[in-house]
Amino acid sequence: MHFIKSLGILALSCGALAGNLTDLDIKVTHEIPASECKIKATDGDVVSVHYSGSLVGSDEVFDSSYSRGVPISFELGSGRVIQGWDQGILGMCIGEKRELRIPSNLGYGARGAGAVIPPNADLFFETTLVDIRRRDEL
């Protein structure tokens, strides 16, 4: 009986990690007042973002630029990062913080990412936009 109960708990836990989100969920945790936001991130900008990432339903961080002290930089909207990032960073101001809950179809989908992110996993990221460089400034 104890074994069957344990299997049920394990199945529920795995279900929490296996693609239950259907839409990108963005929560602004530190907003920059409009009067202080000189530019917002748009497609084609090269943005620098600090982040920590975990699976939805888990407190274990699988990757963090904060711990390395170096943000990731990429061209927004170019497909160089997962779709949930391209969509979730869009419109941010420098210094703004957002929490992104990304459904698996906007993350790594059925392929997952190595041993770190299983197939069909929903992802959670805490992000801070550090810098924006416009395409014409590059």
TrEMBL record:
It holds the Pfam family FKBP_C. Its EC number is 5.2.1.8. Residues 44-133 form the PPIase FKBP-type domain. Keywords: Isomerase, Rotamase, Signal. SUPFAM superfamilies: FKBP-like (SSF54534). It catalyses: [protein]-peptidylproline (omega=180) = [protein]-peptidylproline (omega=0). It is an enzyme of class 5 (isomerase). Residues 1-18 form the signal peptide. GO terms for cellular component: endoplasmic reticulum. One of its GO terms (molecular function) is peptidyl-prolyl cis-trans isomerase activity. InterPro entries: FKBP2/11, PPIase_dom_sf, PPIase_FKBP_dom. PANTHER family: PEPTIDYLPROLYL ISOMERASE. Belongs to the FKBP-type PPIase family. FKBP2 subfamily. This is peptidylprolyl isomerase.
